[in-house]
Amino acid sequence: MKSPFRKPVLAAQWDRTGLDYVLADWQGGRVTITAAGSIERVAEEGDTPPAPGELLRAELASLGVRHCELLVALGRGSVDVLPLHLPPAGDQELPTLVANQVVRDAGETAESGVIDYVPLDTPEGQSREVFAFAVDGATIDEIATEAKQAGLRPAAVIYRPLASVTLLQRLVPQSRRTMILVTLHDREADLTIVRNGRLLYTRTARLVESNNVGDIAAQLSVEVTRSLAAASLTADGEEQHLYVFGSLEESEQLVQDLSDELSLPASLLDPLRREHVAGSLPADAARLAPLVGLIHGYLERRLPLDFLHPKRPPAPPNYYRRGATYAAAVMALVAAGAYYAWDVRTQAAEQVAALRKSVDDTRTLLEKVQQKQAVVDAIWQWETDNVNWLDELYDLTSRLPGGQEAVVRRLTISPGRAGQPVIELSIQVRDPEVRSRLTDQLRDAFHDVESPGVSEQSASTDYPWQFETRITLRKREPEQYRESAPDETPSGDLAASAPGAAAQ
After folding, report:
1. Domain extent listing, the chain
2. What topology does CATH give the domain 389-497?
3. In CATH, 74-299 is 3.30.420.40
4. What does the pLDDT look like over 145-182, one tens digit per residue?
5. Which residues pair with 466 in a beta bridge?
6. 439: three-class secondary structure by DSSP
7. Regarding predicted confidence, which is higher, 326 or 432?
């Protein structure tokens, strides 16, 4: 038995302030972390910070490593994330559908860059849902430049939160619960939701510039709540569990505070719990979680995506190869007689011509069907989103209390999941009892109302209480608006008392 030689694997991530790396060896089917560290990109006054390639080259030289495979994790600032709802399609058709949709939505970034995607758990034959990720060409060129400066060549480039998910699935295998993963970085946190082992939602949130654990926990609880709402899991009956990457000394109190704030079970995951470590580690090991997950995903060949090797549609069938097969058969039968060989060749040529004609006819028919399908899809989308907004706003205004009791500070209208429009209100009230009364006034057969909570605003004396309300609308016909119309025209007191309110 011979073990094939494999170069060490170096996983790295960087931003304007620093660089993190993990160096690992693959020996006998086991990953060994030989070195890891975090390097600040600090420059003297008047100078530019050192380039990541220079820092990596110097670090590898100090470790005595000459050759290795470079893996790069990109943060949210370098990647465009686009959730897509696509028509029914097979897995082989998805690359083309995703590319066309992203080019239409992202424009120049997608046309000049790289597109890859992660399909959600949607069976074939139904509408497909995917998360598409786009990186512009300048970012890919920058990675190649930094790698060359370090004397390396990039082997894989992945979106950082997905690398954290790979490590989560390794540490918590075969989980059928809804898992909310929090990975902390400098002044930002990657928030990812996984259900039944499949990606459901991902985003990155900026954090307050504070070292107080209570402040960070309070903001993270708000961001987790927003993520659950965006993924339509706020009222999900399925069991939910919160996981946070970190060490016991640094993150135990944060996890406890988050569990109390969200009323969810929470667990602290050490990213190096199951790793064989041969070298020293930096103080903050939590930020290395995406890099550890990236190394395992790369070595085990189960990366969810790779911007250097994005998913491509299968190559079209090679009809010339089929013709060559017939030609070889004809040559094998030459000895049986010139006439027989000529006859077989003629038949093969006619069959190839018929197949080509059939392919051309099918392609022409497919183009016509696709054109008609595009019209049908556009009409269906218009009909789905066709909401009588003037009637909806009129109806909403009639239900709101007067300006002596409440002020609307923000009104946002946006599309929700499954095509249902959503209205989000930020309201300040004089008395917290107005919130309960307003919720009852708004909720009916066409309005689902969610009000997470009310908080006191010490800065306002007239309206000291503030709360958020999310209203999910169901489409109505014009006569249904007339049936539920109020007896009197809205007084407009609320609008007059809140000149600063705006609809976005």
Report:
1. 74-299, 319-384, 389-497
2. Gyrase A; domain 2 (3.30.1360)
3. yes
4. 999 999 999 999 999 999 999 999 999 877 778 899 99
5. 428, 455
6. helix
7. 432
Cβ pair 94, 85 in contact under 8 A: no
* HSE-CB of 136 using CA atoms within 13 angstroms: 11
Question: Residue 299 burial (CB < 10 Å; 0-12/13-18/19+)?
Answer: middle
The residue to which tokens 């309206």 are assigned: 463
Task: Point out which residues pair with 72 in neighbouring strands.
Answer: 12, 157
Q: Kindly report the three-state secondary structure assignment for every residue of 202-249.
A: EEEEECCCCCCHHHHHHHHHHHHHHHHHHCCCCCCCCCEEEEEECCHH
Residues 6+ apart with CB under 8 A from 105: 82, 84
Percentages helix, strand, coil for the chain, rounded to the nearest 5?
40, 25, 35
* pLDDT at 103 exceeding the cut of 60: yes
pLDDT digits (tens, 9 = 90+) for 68-81: 999 999 998 899 99
At residue 47, the pLDDT reads: 78
Kindly give, in sequence order, each residue whose CB lies less than 8 Å from that of residue 5, ignoring residues fewer than 6 positions away: none
In the predicted structure, residue 372 carries a pLDDT above the cut 60: yes
- Confidence at 220, pLDDT banded by 50, 70, 90: very high
Nearby residues of 22 by Cβ (< 8 Å), 6 or more positions away: 10, 11, 12, 33, 35, 36, 288, 291, 292, 295
